[in-house]
Amino acid sequence: MTSLFEHCSECVELLGEYVDGSLAAEKAAALEAHLSLCPPCITFVRTYKATRVLCRHKLAADMPQELCNSLNAFLAKNVPGYVPPEGGEKPAPASPSNKKN
Amino acid sequence: MVDQTAEGPAQAGQGGEPDDRELVAKAQRGDGAAFAELVARHQRQLYRLALRMTGSEADAQEVLQEAFLNAYQKLPNFRGEAQFSSWLYRIAANSALMRLRRKRRAPDALQDQPLELQGPKFSVEGFLEPQNDWSQRADTQMMDRELGQAIDQAVTALPEDYRTVFLLKDVDGLSNEEIASALDLTVPAVKSRLHRARLSLREKLGDFFGQ
After folding, report:
1. Parent domain of B183
2. Which of A38, B81, B86, B199 could staple B181 via S-S, CB 3.0–4.6 A?
């Protein structure tokens, strides 16, 4: 049987791990049970998630091409046999632009 | 939601490409092209780390050069006990910290600072008051310039060590483990700072949307 968090403050404390998917299953179930009964907490979760999305959208920074070029030029001078691969840089593994929420 | 990390595509080879481990082994045998491939794979993430830690594009450039050169010189000592990317983040973070210390003459740039972060208000019993759901408005105002300014101000107002963790995680997509390794924090400390930062930012965005 799923236990239930009685207070909103307990849920808010665990929200970071819940939203990131790292909260233990039992605690996540208890949190969801609370959410199913608590409209203020549902709104809180929505706005908590929206905060991340907005900040990511506004603050994403990509590496300028000139900086890639100057880094390669610097390393070519200092690392024997350094030859930048065809096409220069590789796509960012987990850049904000290709990351889904 | 699954926590995405930078490890996947950068570590494992795609479409027959060698993975980091193979490239590191080649680079350790003096293959400069293999090292260049490692640089190409990781430079963007390292740039974001350096930019977030130093707050300056010029400093980030210096940090990147120093970090990759340092990594090349230390490569013979890399035994592969940690992920190559984590090892690299640590080198870059140290380089950024050294730069910050030289600039500020402050020995502990990323240690705990006095913390006055806003958070939600609860009743005495621990319950939330009814909340204003501004999440829908956030979607429609995504391009709003004033909103951008409000976000800039709110993020700038965060204590530095909280801001760095937040930006690396929620904006740049590093994993908690990578951030912990780079900033010499425990994973629980990363999670805690991240959550406090998000709560504070949420409050300020709520103020902006007229909560």
Report:
1. 135-208
2. B86
